[in-house]
Structure to design on (95 residues):
């Protein structure tokens, strides 16, 4: 499970651009791909990017060679993305 969460600081940093502090710089470049996919989408940019990033990450994991893709294709592994709502503690499965 690729688990993201509401109000994610790393996603906020990617949206704000510029130099990310500390270890965030290693992941903001990845998050920018999700941001590019949702820029023109209606709704909250932060929330849309958080969700898209989790989905893109799970899709990338499903295709990871040589081990994960074989397990997914053989039905031995399921990779899903989910969204953790910090305010309620609930987890919403995205894919």
């Amino acid at each position: 499970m690729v688990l993201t969460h509401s109000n994610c600081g790393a996603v906020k940093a990617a949206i704000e651009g510029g130099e990310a502090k500390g270890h965030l710089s290693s992941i903001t470049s990845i998050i920018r791909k999700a941001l590019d996919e949702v820029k023109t989408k209606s709704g909250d940019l932060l929330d849309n990017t958080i969700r898209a990033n989790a989905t893109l990450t799970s899709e990338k994991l499903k295709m990871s060679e040589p081990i994960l893709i074989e397990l997914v294709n053989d039905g031995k592994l399921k990779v899903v993305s989910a969204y953790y709502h910090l305010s309620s503690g609930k987890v919403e499965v995205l894919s």
